[in-house]
Specification:
Radius of gyration: 22 Å
Strand order of the largest sheet: 1-2-3-4
Helix content: 40-55%
Length: 249
Amino acid sequence: MPILTNPFVQVVNQMNGIPTTVTGLEDMPELKARYKAREASLYISMQQVLSQVAELLAPDEEILSMMPMTNEENAGYATDGIMGMYAPQTQKAKDYIKSQSSLRGNRLMLFTNQRMIFFVVIEFIDDPTAYYSYAYDQIKAIAFKKHRMSIPGQKFYQRQWYIWYTLDFETPDRHIFNEVLTAANGELFRRNLLTIPGMSQIEIKDHMDRYFKRDNYLSSGMFWIKVTFGMMAFILLLALFSFLFTGSY
């Protein structure tokens, strides 16, 4: 049960200095023991990861904050299923899989005083060159938008709000970063926009802004969802007209 026993978000937040609590395991001693074992092992793995990151930093560069992302809480469309398959090469990566039961689900974005660094944890453990670097002064604009959805509360007249954010930007070499952020991720990213000088110079928008305008549509997941539903509606209308005028499909 990776949703309950994946300690990645909590461990990274604790390393970030953010107080965290784990709930839902009080009455499940076996799952709680599994979580604790994974948590202890992950602390060791993350120290290794940060040691590798330290070798990437310039002399005057420092890590200011870290943002954890998982398939349980963020988007999984690029790291689940076939896209989530991975064959570890080193013993350290094999040990990580064995202890965490995770392939490409755990991802990390680091914010330094000069750039963002993003990688899939297991790939980075295997290969310290398997990461993406986004210098703040090379990002023209960031699409950062808050979304809210009302859901029923404990009583029929109560409503609760489910909040998430979408994050999207493109670099001059046309590398696109797109992710769904949790409410906690979104607040962390917003805080970084306000407190990191390099990020404060980036234009923030509520829509995608590509270097080539056609890519605003071609790289948009919502655009293709609308196209798919439009085609389905068109096919249903054809079937309906066929039935009305001919009496058969």
